[in-house]
# Entry
Amino acid sequence: MSDLSNNKEISFLKIVAMYIGAVIGAGFASGQEIMQFFVVHGEDWLREVIIVSVLFSYLGAITLLLSVKLRTDNYLALIRTLIGEKTSKVIDILSLLMLMGGLSIMLSGSGAVFSEHLNASRWFGVVLIVVINCLVTMGGLQGVLWIYAILVPVKILAIVGLCLLIINVHDATGYMFETTTASITQRHWLWSGVLYVSYNMVLVLAVLTTLGKSISPKKAVSAGIVGGLGLGFTAGVVCLAGMSLYPEIIEYKVPTLFMAGVISKSLKYPIGVLIWMAILTTAIANTHGLASRLATPGSKKYKLIGIGVTLLAIPLAMMDFDRLVGTIYPIFGYAGLFVITVLILSPLIIFKKKLAAGKKLI
# Structure
């Protein structure tokens, strides 16, 4: 039986936490995503953050609203409605493979954090995240929402708090012009912002579409907008902190650890734990999105699939973290471009289908 069988509506804050938690993963918490997608563009960072905030707000709201209207518990029903049966099959297979790949990357990342930053065994990091992920999966959708409601606020407060301390100690404005003239980037700031959003939307789509049967249209729209603005605000604060430590910060693989070291060397371990928490929530999101696609959330089959794919991800997780990221993440970006294009145009697509069918589609 589904854990939604009691028709209990999910709270607004849990929806927002689930949205933000799907995006703020290891790359964001480490600071690496913000450095590569925002800081390198210097004075254009603010325009890029605004574009990203608008896109995340619109895409989050439209994804949740369509999910409610279609009463979805996975992403397939939504993409099938928008792009048709044949094309949706291709996207479905690609999405499943990417979710599995993303899960393996998170398991590998957990091992890397423990071995490189917490002075522990790589295997311990992998096994720990596997065990916790399986326990959360056993709790179904409510288990996922519960862990997100706890961990996501902690992540955001820690990241924002650290960055505000950096901004207070170092003035970012003096580095703006230097950043603009010294940085050599291959992407225009606008294109970089679009790629950043598309890179994240595959997982976001897989997660948010599982909520379609348990939230109201009004709550769907408002949570999508607030979640998008929250993501933009957090990215902006991290970007400002990165600007204040430019150009030294660009040389570090884990910029947040460098930031922590600027404030106090004793912050290294808490920040290492923070990054691991971000990895955990992303691993949970990948598992939940994959299991929800193949079974009703909360059902016995859902739990078995969730545990099964977690165990199957272990062998691939033995590969180096940076190698996995370099191989699998670019695929996420290209697939995401198609996904966000379809979502942006979804009102027009649905209107056209309604006209063709001569009836209300959703």
In short: The chain is about 75% helix and 0% strand. The two ends are 26 Å apart (CA to CA).
